[in-house]
Predict the structure.
Amino acid sequence: MILVDDIEKACKLIKDSTYALALTGAGISTESGIPDFRSPGVGLWGKMDPMEALSTDVLLNNPEKFYREGFKILRGMENAQPNDAHRILAELEDKGYINGVITQNIDNLHHRAGSKKVYEVHGNTRTCHCMRCKSKYEFKELERQVDAGIKVPKCPKCGGMLRPDVVMFGDMMPQDFELALKEAQKSDLLIVIGSSLEVAPVCYIPDMVPHLIIINLMKTPYDKSADVVFHDKAGKVMKEIRDTMENT
Ligand code: APR
């Protein structure tokens, strides 16, 4: 049940903010058919060990296992479509209410929804690179080689091992994370959508921003310090916020 007062409070926070940002996690994409990681019973980490599936340790020491198992998580998102929550964030950016989206997601749905400033702090599934000569290729090159039965995709130029440009457990954080921190330092309002806020270092970003709106089905460690919390579906809450913003 979404309380009108909470929606009105969220709209006022957004309108009164000087530099608002969104921070999204896998929960914003479940309504697009992409499973998240920690929802009880359905999240991906309930079915496999993340350290076994998406870690640099497995990629480097057992690349055949990585491409046989963990790699599957990274595929198949190109058929997913942005949902209302992605689209409304893009609208809020167009109208100047938010200044960008920091996302932990690698599904490319914020770009496809039209968001312009997207900080992909866990990388992306558009590209991959050679670990020896650093040449860049489309992510499709990995899929093509794996589908052709190649157990560990190789660089067409130098024969080195290819890896996805996704940030995995054990990786350094990418440049987008540094940019996201700079943005958060300028921000006075963070709208968190669909994240358990359990994974460091991204889970420290809400500590950097004075005001918080949290839209998340489950409780998060920041609920107590947030200005307003919605334990409801992202699409539903974002539609209520958009409709109320338009009528006030
Ligand atoms: N609307 C709102 N919240 C939702 C919805 C929805 N439709 N569906 C799921 N959620 C909530 C869940 O209740 C959960 O708390 O989204 C949250 C998703 O949390 P996680 O599955 O932990 O995903 P995320 O926070 O993005 O994980 C962070 O962990 O394994 C790593 O690299 C991976 O980027 C990921 C990181």
User: Anything to note?
Assistant: The beta strands are 20-24, 101-103, 118-120, 123-130, 136-138, 162-166, 189-193, 211-215, 228-230.
